[in-house]
Design a protein that fits this description.
Order of helices and strands: EHEHHHEHEHHHEHHHHH
CATH topology: Rossmann fold
Number of strands: 5
CATH superfamily: P-loop containing nucleotide triphosphate hydrolases
Shape: globular
CATH architecture: 3-Layer(aba) Sandwich
Helix content: 40-55%
CATH class: Alpha Beta
Distance between the termini: 51 Å
Structural class: alpha/beta
Strand order of the largest sheet: 2-3-1-4-5
Length: 291
């Protein structure tokens, strides 16, 4: 039997906005016997830490630069493959919403930009924020919602929570910024956007598009019986039931206009949210050629 560490997996990524159906999509894809999808994974963080620590290590800094850089690439590549070494399925999809920040590293590990394929789940930003607000209210009924002390007072109002979630260092703001910047850096061909509305209204067509993007044969999914096979301890993220999914794929009615009121809608922050609510649909001008 071939050694697990020498069996090369086909590796892709699942990123996107929070509360945009990525967990649902992961568990739909898991019905395919060829596809393994992780829950939120920490391997990208480990890769970045090794990359950065390598460059700060005196032993490696003193070594031949070209040889050290080549060895670093080999180590990072081996780390990513080893992470999936015990997975029997040949296609592995690593889920972490921050992969768009590190696509240059991903290209180096995978062997070229053409091998980088990221499924990006997206949803109207107003719905993302409304979903977080609902989760906050459910959690706070019987549990303390742990927040950074620096934003604790702002977190006491719905408008303040919107502003916190959208901060560039917080969950919605960082995800949004990472995706937008990946587009600016020219990674659009490597990103396949999956709109939550499309996934829940046209799941069969949406999955067919994903398989075309990945270069995989289509699979006949059962959208009425989704077994949840990826699990996370959501209290680590400060909320309850962030990653629980419904058994059946079906559309959800818009709720942002029922969750919030005019005190939020009239704020400058909400005006910015409205202007960028479906940013992935905005036509993008091609980048000018580099002279």
């Amino acid at each position: 039997m071939q050694d697990r560490l020498t069996m090369q997996k086909k590796i892709h990524f699942l990123a996107g906005l929070p509360r945009s159906g990525s967990t649902l999509l992961a568990n739909i894809l898991a019905q395919n016997p060829r596809v393994h999808v992780t829950p939120t994974s920490g391997i990208v963080d480990m890769l970045v830490q090794v990359r950065n620590a390598w460059d700060r290590n005196d032993g490696f800094r003193a070594a031949d630069r070209a040889a050290s850089d080549a060895a670093k690439e080999d180590v990072l590549r081996a780390m990513l493959q080893a992470y999936f070494a015990r997975v029997e399925r040949p296609v592995c999809i690593d889920k972490n919403r921050y992969w768009p920040e590190f696509l240059e590293m991903a290209a180096g590990i995978l062997g070229g930009t053409d091998r980088v394929k990221v499924i990006v789940s997206v949803r109207d930003l107003r719905e993302v924020l409304a979903s977080f607000e609902e989760v906050y209210r459910r959690t706070s009924a019987f549990s303390e919602v742990l927040t950074d002390p620096a934003v604790a007072l702002k977190f006491k109002t719905a408008q303040g929570r919107v502003e916190v979630f959208l901060d560039a260092a917080q969950v919605v703001g960082r995800s949004y910024t990472g995706i937008r910047d990946a587009l600016t850096r020219g990674w659009a061909p490597s990103l396949h956007f999956v709109d939550y509305e499309d996934l829940t209204r046209q799941p069969r067509a949406t999955l067919a598009g994903i398989y075309r993007f990945l270069g995989e044969d289509a699979h006949e999914h059962d959208f009425n019986h989704i077994e949840q096979v990826t699990f996370e301890d959501d209290l680590v993220h400060g909320f309850k039931d962030l990653h629980r999914i419904r058994e059946q794929v079906k559309p959800q009615q818009p709720k942002w206009n029922r969750v919030f009121d005019e005190s939020v809608f009239q704020s400058p922050t909400w005006k910015q949210v409205e202007s960028a609510a479906t940013f992935w649909k905005t036509p993008r001008k091609p980048k000018a050629a580099t002279p």
